[in-house]
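YM 10:42: ubiquitinyl hydrolase 1 sequence, as discussed on the call
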Amino acid sequence: MGKEYIYFEKQHDLMCGQHALNMLIQRKEFDASHLTNFVERLDQREKEISGMPSNSFRSQNASESGFFSIQVLAAALISQNLVLFDTNKPKYAHYMFEPEEAQAFIINQSQHWFTLRRFGDMWFILNSISNGPRFIATQLLQPYFAKLIENRASIYVVEGDLNVCEADVAAMNGELSVIDGILETEELDILVNSVGNDNEDEDMQKALAASLEYFNDEQNQDVPTHAASTEEESD
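YM 10:58: structure's back
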C-alpha cells in the first residue's frame, strides 16, 4: 500500500496543463472540452479588448496540440475556488525560501506544466511525463526551486482550500510509502534537466511566453482578474 492513494495522470499529447490541474485537485475534474471553453471565453475577451479582427487574431491561450496557457489554468482553478499567484511577486516571494508553508505549486518549465503538492507533511512532484508520483524531501524543496529558477521555470503558488483527499488521509496515517524519491541534493540536477518539451514551433513558444507575461501583468492587484472575470461570465 502506498502511492496508489495519489491520483496520477500520464502524459497525453501536450495536455500537461490538464494533467497538472487534475493531479493538483486529485480527481479527473477537467478534460479538453472544459479547458477549451475557458480558451474560447478568454480569446473572445482579448479580441474585444484589443479590437483585433478575428481573421488576424492568434490565440495565446492554447495550441492545436493541447497546450494551455497560464490564463486558462488560472480560470479553471478559480472555478474550484483556488487562485494562482506568481512567486516573483514580492508578496509571495517568501515561498521560494519557505515552500513548505504552501499547500501546492503549479510550475512551468520548458513549456511544460506540472504540480508540486503536499499530502500531510509529505511533498510529491506530480509530473505527467514521469512514471508516477515522486516524493521529494522537504529540506530539498528550496534548493529544488533555486535550480528550477536557474532553468527559467515559472513557479506559481496555489492558494485557497484544497479539499482533503485520500492521499492526505493516507499520509496522516503513515500509509504513503516512498518508492521513488528525491532524497539527495545531487539528484536535483537530474530531476530538473529531465523536464523539457520541444514539440512546439518557435512562434507558439513565443506566444505562450507572452501568455505568461500577460498573466503576470494582470496580477498587479494580487488577483488574476482576467481569469476571475471569465469565471463570472460563465456563471
